[in-house]
Amino acid sequence: MPHWTALVTLLSIAVYFWADLSVGKARGAFQIKAPATTGDPNFERVFRAHQNMLEWMPIFLPALWLFALYLSDRWAALVGLVWIGGRALYFVTYAQAADKRGRGFAIQAAASAVLFVGALIGVGKALIAG
């Protein structure tokens, strides 16, 4: 069983939950009542950072698990931790100013690419091996 990957999956969900709570907090701070998603640029940056994390999770999670199952649990978990760090950095810097989000985005995108390519190689090798 890929126990390390399971732990990283739970950590990624915890980071997503933290981002979710941050949106709720920003709603109160900037007086944006649901279902509105616009009205104050400070709120909108927090909201978009959260939405962007949600948009990347369907890319990250399957790639993470396929990498773990076909190549290595420990390496998947390690790269997954890099993804989590990149997402957290992205969230914090985007909430401050949109033009600061680049480094966090690049880190998580690179980690996602490593997981995807690794999963593709692992699945390909398994198919060839029969």
Write the layout of secondary structure elements.
Blueprint: H1 3-30, H2 41-70, H3 73-96, H4 102-129
Give a written overview of the molecule.
This protein is mainly alpha-helical and 130 residues long. It has a single domain, classed as Up-down Bundle (Four Helix Bundle (Hemerythrin (Met), subunit A)). It has helices at 3-30, 41-70, 73-96, 102-129. Helix 1 packs antiparallel against helix 2 (41-70) and helix 2 packs antiparallel against helix 3.
User: Based on the structure given, which CATH architecture is correct?
Assistant: Up-down Bundle
User: What gap, in angstroms, lies between the N and C termini?
Assistant: 22 Å
Give the percentage of residues in beta strands: under 5%
Count of DSSP H/I helices: 4
Considering DSSP H and I runs of 4 or more, what fraction of the residues is helical? over 70%
> According to CATH, what is the topology?
Four Helix Bundle (Hemerythrin (Met), subunit A)
Summarize it.
With 130 residues, the protein is mainly α.
Key traits:
Four Helix Bundle (Hemerythrin (Met), subunit A); single chain; mainly alpha; 85% helix
